[in-house]
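For the sake of transparency, this paper describes our internal protein records without simplification. The record that follows is passed on verbatim for readers who wish to inspect the format:
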Amino acid sequence: RAFVHGFALGPAMWSSLAGPDDRALTVHGHQGRPIDRDADFVTLVDDLAAELEPKTHLIGYSMGGRLALAIALRHPAQVGRLSLLSCHPGIADPKERASRRQRDRQLATSIEARGLAWFRDYWQSLPMWSSQRSCDPGRLQAVAKMRLGHDPAALASALRALGPGAMPDYSPALATLAIDTDIVVGELDPRYRSIGERMAQMIPSSRVRVIAGAGHNLVLEAPAAVAELFSDRAEAVA
């Protein structure tokens, strides 16, 4: 298996799930690949795909899920199974996508100008993380430490290259995805639960798995449930 982390996180987010034979890819930061300010989403997807063995079970969360989906569509021979946690297939409306790209670039500039402590506080204040208030404080501190461990310029470059505004809309290609796919969403994440249900209607061999009592960051909020889900799927497919 190969795991792809979310934005401003790193391979350590998968420590409760990855086994000795698994690989947690580093997309940005934490000794990861340098991302040029003018990098292209598709080029970075192709670079990541080249690191995989054929027929890998590819698991991605949020930004990592978007990258995993793009890899599966562009390089299907590299992916044997696909697990997408809290992700979407791209912004369909060109004007909305351009608007998001502009907002992503503005946030990237703010990260460079204000630093990581400002970014951590801003990011953690977003409504999508409200379900984490009941999480174990130690796990929350570990996530905050990951966010503070990045280089501000590198994190900003990653946002410009890999943010939702930079990602093509892959929705029209979902019907061609001939890979066994789990779409994993949190019960307390209504927006992504709705997106996941729509994706499952378009991807032929797919199903939605809802994690009870969890919001967007499923690995942080319900690690045992996510681990059990992957274990069940491994037994079912074997």
About this structure: Residues 234-238 have pLDDT under 50 and may be disordered. The longest helix spans residues 94-114. The CA atoms of residues 156 and 178 lie 34 Å apart.
